[in-house]
Amino acid sequence: MLVLEPQHYYLLQQPWWGMLIALYLFLGGLGAMAFCTSFYFWRRKGNGSLVVGGSILGLIAVLIGTIFLILDLGHPERFYLVLLSPKLNLSSWIAIGSILLLAFMIFTALFVAPMLRWFRWLPWAKNETVIRTFGWLGFITGIGVSAYTGILIGIVFNIPFWNAPALPVIFMISAFSTGLASLILMMLFLDREAHEIHVMAKTDGFTMIFELIVISIFLLIRSYGPVAAAESVNTILFGWLAPYFVGGVLLIGLAIPIMLIFGYEVKRQGVTAVTAISAIFVLIGGALLRYVVLEAGILQIPCCV
Amino acid sequence: MARYGMVIDLEKCLGCEACIAACVEENNVPYEKGLRTQVHRIVTGRFPNVSTIYMHRICQHCEHPSCVTVCPTGASFVNKDGIVLIDYEICIGCKYCMVACPYLARYIHPERRTPDKCTFCEHRVKDGKLPACVETCPANARIFGDLDNPGSEVAKLVAENRAIPMGAEYGTRPKVFYIRPG
C-alpha cells in the first residue's frame, strides 16, 4: 500500500540509462575534445605525433562511445533508423546527436587520413586548404558532440537535476579536461620529450579549478531547486552516491590532480610519474562524473490531483 | 478526426482493479513486467480524519507529448484522433521517451523489447467500441469520449471544471482528467 499525500511527487531514480550511456557520454566528450585540442596544435604547427595520434585517439574514442550507445538500445540491429527512419524526427536530440557523431567521425577521418602513410594516395593529401577545411568541420562538430552529451539529458524537464543550463557546461569542461588527460597519457607513450605535455598539464589544472567552481555552484543552485533536484544533490553528497561523487569525482578526479599538477608538475622539468598519475585520475573522475549524474537523475512524477 | 479524452471519477472508483485485468487481457500486457494502467491506493489526511482514494495512472495522451518530441525515429506519434501511439516496427528502444515522460506511463515490453503504454484501445475505438477498461469498470468510474464534441460527457465534465488534469505544471496538456473525491 502506498501512503501518500496529494500534491506530493513520486521521487524515483531513473532506472533506464546506466553504465553504457555513462561510458558513451564520457568517451564522446573525451574524443571530441581530444580531436579539437589536436587540431589546435596542428594549426600551431605543433608536435606531429600529437596531432596525428590525438586525432586518431579522438576518432576511436567517439567510435567506441557510439558502439556503447548502440548496445544500450532495445533493438541494436535497428540503429540505422536513428538516421534513416521514414518518419525521422529532426527535433529529437538523439537524432541531432547522431548526425553530429557521424559528421564528426567522417570529418576527423578525412582530416587525419592523408597524414598516415597508407593514405598518401588520397587526392587532397597535398592540398592543405582541403585538410584545413575538414579540420575546421571536425572541430565545429566536435564542439557540437561535446555540448550535445549534456543537452541530451539537460532537456528532460521532469528530472530537474539534469534540467539545468550549467549541466552541458560542466560536461563540456569535463570533456576538455579528460580530452587533455587522454592526450597527455598518449604522449607519454609516443614522445615524452614533447613540451606540449607540460602546456596541456598546466591547462588541465586551470580547467579543473574552473570545473570545481562550476560544479559547486551547480550543486548549490540545484539544492534550492524542485524537490527532486534537492533530493539528487542530497544523494550525491550524503547518500549512496557520495563515495562515487565526493571520493571519486571531487577527490580523485579533481582535488588530487589539481594538487599534483600545481604542486609538482609545473615546478619540475621532464616527465614524472606525477604526470601519468594525475592524468589517470582525471580520466577516472570524468567517467565517474557521467555515471553519478545519470544515477542521480531523480524523476519528479506528479502522484495525485 | 476526434480528440479523444478520458475522465476518471476517483469518487466512484472502488479500487477493484478490474480495469487492470481487462487491459491485461485485451492488450497482451505482461502482468509481472509492467502495466499500461495502474491503480495506486493513496491515503490522505491525518488520523483520525483519514480517507483513501484510488489514483489511476495511465498514459495521459498529452497534446504536447514530450515522448513524441524526444523520439528520434518518429516511432512515438500522435494519430489523427489525438491518441499518442508507438510504432513498434521503427522503435529502436533508446528509452528516451521513458526518461522524458513526466507521468511514468511507459514500461519495457519484454517480448517486443520496446516501450509500451496505454493506447486508449485504439483498435477498439476505431470500430466504435469503448476501451476495454471503460467497458469493464463496474462503477462507471472511467468515462471515455470526444473532447471536441460539446455534447459528450467528458467534454461537459471538463468544461464545468469538475474534471481536472494531473501534473498540469509540466505544460504537456494531458487529455486524461480526474474528478477529485468530494
Report on this model:
The complex is a heterodimer of chains A (305) and B (182). With 305 residues, chain A is mainly α. Chain A has a single domain (3-302), classed as Formate dehydrogenase/DMSO reductase fold. Chain A has helices spanning 19-43, 48-71, 81-84, 93-112, 128-154, 166-190, 196-223, 227-238, 242-263, 273-295, and strands at residues 9-13, 298-302. In chain A, helix 1 (19-43) packs across helix 6 (166-190) and helix 4 (93-112) runs antiparallel to helix 5. Chain A starts with 8 loop residues before the first strand and ends with a strand. Chain B is of the alpha+beta class. Chain B has one domain (4-179): Alpha-Beta Plaits (2-Layer Sandwich), CATH 3.30.70.20. Chain B is built from six helices and ten strands. In chain B, strands 8-1-10-9 form a four-stranded mixed β-sheet, covered by helices on one side. In chain B, strand 6 (107-109) and strand 7 form a beta hairpin. The longest helix of chain B is centred in the N-terminal third of the chain and has 10 residues, at 18-27. Chain B is globular. Chain B starts with a strand and ends with a strand. The model of chain B has no long low-confidence stretch (mean pLDDT 93). Chain A binds chain B through residues 1-6, 10, 12, 14, 16-17, 72-75, 78-79, 81-82, 85-89, 91-95, 98, 153, 155-159, 297, 299-305, and chain B through 10, 40-44, 53, 55, 66, 68-75, 77, 87, 90-96, 98-104, 108, 113-115, 164-167, 169-170, 178, 180.
Query: Whole-Å distance between the termini of chain B?
Result: 34 Å
Instruction: Give the helix level of chain A as a range of percent.
Output: 55-70%
Q: What's the SSE pattern of chain B? A: EHEEHEEHEEHHEHEE
CATH-derived architecture of chain B: 2-Layer Sandwich
- Report the top-level CATH class of chain A: Mainly Alpha
Report the CATH topology name of chain B.
Alpha-Beta Plaits
Oligomerization = heterodimer
Note the overall shape of chain B.
globular
Unreliable spans of chain B are: none
CATH H-level superfamily title of chain A: Formate dehydrogenase/DMSO reductase domain
Question: Could you name the CATH class of chain B?
Answer: Alpha Beta
Q: With helices defined by DSSP (H or I, 4 residues minimum), what is the helix count of chain A?
A: 10
**Overall mean confidence score, pLDDT of chain B:** 93
Share of β-strand residues of chain B = 25-35%
Q: How many distinct beta strands of chain A?
A: 2
Helical percent range of chain B?
Answer: 10-25%
Query: Largest beta sheet of chain B: what is the strand line-up?
Result: 8-1-10-9
Low-confidence stretches of chain A: none
